[in-house]
Automatic annotation (TrEMBL):
Coiled-coil annotated residue ranges, if any: none
UniProt-recorded Gene Ontology molecular function terms: lipid-A-disaccharide synthase activity
Membrane-spanning ranges: 20-40, 52-73, 79-99
Pfam families: LAB_N (PF07578)
GO biological process: lipid A biosynthetic process
UniProt superkingdom: Bacteria
GO terms under cellular component: membrane
Domain Lipid A biosynthesis N-terminal as annotated: residue spans: 26-97
Family matches, as InterPro entries: Lipid_A_biosynth_N (IPR011499), UCP028440_lipidA_biosyn (IPR014546)
Protein name per Swiss-Prot or TrEMBL: Lipid A biosynthesis N-terminal domain-containing protein
Keywords from the named record: Membrane, Transmembrane, Transmembrane helix
Length: 109
């Protein structure tokens, strides 16, 4: 049992300490930004007592997704690059649709 914990401790050290550099820190910051979109969406939904997707969700998606794409490119991870790259189009399109909707509302007023 002690040997198993020693191997686990060594693995945790190798993964989280030994590899720690500016890119890993960027990756963690990017993931935190990307994850904040769910917190924003959850809080907005709880306040409204219904499912809501606020504009901040799309901005956190765009910012976090862009940082994660940079991280994935640096790490040369094709799966991560494809996933984050495709997501950016969706986030930009949603922000574009929201901006167009706001323009249409202001023209009516």
């Amino acid at each position: 049992m002690a040997e198993m914990f020693a191997h686990l401790a060594e693995w945790l050290h190798d993964v989280f300490i030994k590899q720690l550099d500016a890119w890993v820190i960027l990756g963690f910051v990017a993931q935190a930004c990307f994850s904040m979109r769910f917190v924003v969406q959850w809080v907005a939904s709880e306040k409204a007592k219904r499912s809501v997707v606020p504009v901040a969700f799309w901005f956190f998606s765009l910012f976090g997704g862009t940082l994660l794409l940079v991280y994935a490119i640096q790490r040369q991870d094709p799966v991560f690059i494809a996933g984050q790259g495709m997501g950016l189009f969706i986030y930009i399109r949603n922000l574009w649709l929201i901006a167009n909707e706001k323009k249409a509302v202001t023209k009516v007023d």
